[in-house]
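Supplementary notes for students who missed Thursday's class. We covered one full example, reproduced here. Read the sequence, then the structure, then the short commentary at the end.
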Amino acid sequence: MEIWDRSLKSEPRCVNCSFKNQCVLAVLNEDEFCKTAQMLHRVRYVESEPIFHQGAPVIGWYILCQGWAKLILRASQGKMVLLKFCRPGDILGGIAQ
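Structure (token representation):
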């Protein structure tokens, strides 16, 4: 799974991404898209590695570029509730609380 965030420096591949039209950045015109893509940083996660934890402080937004992610809520009794399957182009973060 690949995630773009602003925490690490790397060369973004957004301009040639096959999911570009499905991405939250698709609303930008080409110039805005290119400028924004240059500010993003790539982070790789291994399968089953958490991207963020429920209740953790929100440190940014993530755009899922490859693979799938599950958005899971841990209920008060310790059970886990699947809220959403996230796919390439989806934005994650801002909801860790």
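Commentary. The CA atoms of residues 71 and 84 lie 5 Å apart. The chain has a mean pLDDT of 76. If anything here is unclear, bring it to office hours.
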